[in-house]
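Fold it.
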Amino acid sequence: MKAKEIREKTGVERDRLLLEFRKKERELRFAVSGRETRNHRALRATRKDIARLLTIAREEEVME
C-alpha cells in the first residue's frame, strides 16, 4: 500500500488496517518459520506497510 493511499484514509480506517496488517504479519511469520510457505517477500512487504502506517500516524501527531 502506498503512502498516498494511507493518507487518504481516516484515523479509524488506519487503525483497522494496522490491526489487519499485524494479524497478517503474524500469520506469515508462523508460515515461514514452519516452512508452510517460502514467500519471504510477503512478510517483508507487510512489515513495510506497518512501518508506513505508523510513520504517517506519527507525522500527523507531530503536526497537531
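DSSP finds three helices and no strands in the chain.
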